[in-house]
Structures are given as structure tokens and as C-alpha cells.
Write a structure and sequence with these properties.
Elements (H helix, E strand, L loop, with lengths): L12 H4 L2 H11 L3 H14 L4 H17 L3 H14 L4 H13 L3 H4 L2
Helix pairs in contact: 2-3, 3-4, 4-5, 5-6
Length: 110
């Protein structure tokens, strides 16, 4: 399961203000990660210059892949989110779970 999914640390506040992003978040919460993945990917292309929003979008895109067990695809997206906003604790934790699932224990515990 996705750790802390749902924005309990406020990382999704920026997304809730964007109607398309709210649809993606709702899709994940409704158990439709494939739809959410397509929506997040389209939004990432649209908002190339807005770092806070892009960080949340990268995290959302990573979360959708995480939910599908696609950890190798999720990990680099979490890294991109963290490069834009290092203060996303849930992205850091979920990245560690991805790394652990891939047998990359040293990276996961670093």
C-alpha cells in the first residue's frame, strides 16, 4: 500500500487548486491509478515552469505507479519531486519503499 497517500502532510494542497489535478487525485482515491497516471503525466507537460506544483505532480505521478507496483518507474519520479521540493517527507518515504522493493536496500536506508 502507498504510505500516507492522501496528502496528510499537505503536499497535495497545490493540486487541489487545479481542477485537472483534483480529477487525478480523485481518480487515485477511487482506485483508478491508470486514469490518474494519464492525467498527472499530461499536467506535468502543461506546468513545466511551476516548481511547487510540478513537485506535487511528480509525486502524484509516482504515487500512481507505486499503487500499480511499478516501483522502478515510481522511484525516478519521486527523485524529481524531491529535487524540486526536498521537504516532501512522504515522497522521501515512498521512494525508500520503492528502493526496498527493488532490492536496493542501501539506497532505501540512506
Amino acid at each position: 500500500t502507498l504510505v500516507g497517500f492522501g496528502g496528510q502532510y499537505g503536499q497535495y494542497d497545490a493540486l487541489k487548486r487545479q481542477p485537472e489535478a483534483a480529477k487525478a487525485l480523485a481518480a487515485v482515491q477511487a482506485g483508478k491509478p491508470e486514469l490518474a497516471q494519464r492525467l498527472y503525466d499530461a499536467l506535468l507537460k502543461r506546468f513545466e515552469q511551476e516548481d511547487a506544483l510540478r513537485a506535487a505532480l511528480f509525486q502524484g505521478a509516482a504515487d500512481t505507479r507505486f499503487l500499480q507496483g511499478r516501483y522502478a518507474e515510481a522511484a525516478p519520479l519521486y527523485l524529481q519531486a524531491l529535487a524540486l521540493r526536498p521537504s516532501l517527507p512522504q515522497a522521501r518515504l515512498n521512494l525508500a519503499y520503492c528502493q526496498q522493493a527493488q532490492g536496493r536496500y542501501e539506497d532505501a536506508y540512506a
